[in-house]
Amino acid sequence: MHANVGDQLVQHGRVVGQHDKVGEIVEVLGRDGNPPYRVRFEDGHEGICSPGPDTEIRHRTTTTR
After folding, report:
1. The pTM is what?
2. Is 2 contained in some domain?
């Protein structure tokens, strides 16, 4: 798994009715974009995550004009 600051970390719900938890990666603590990551979630909570198989990284896209 590889991520950069500004990418989104999405933890998918594990049980029926549980929503995905989405956060922004604010710091990459591993080498070369590898975990662990410091993540700020939508509710303002911030924590260190070592993502598991139920997690997805959505890379920030940059556009140039």
Report:
1. 0.82
2. no
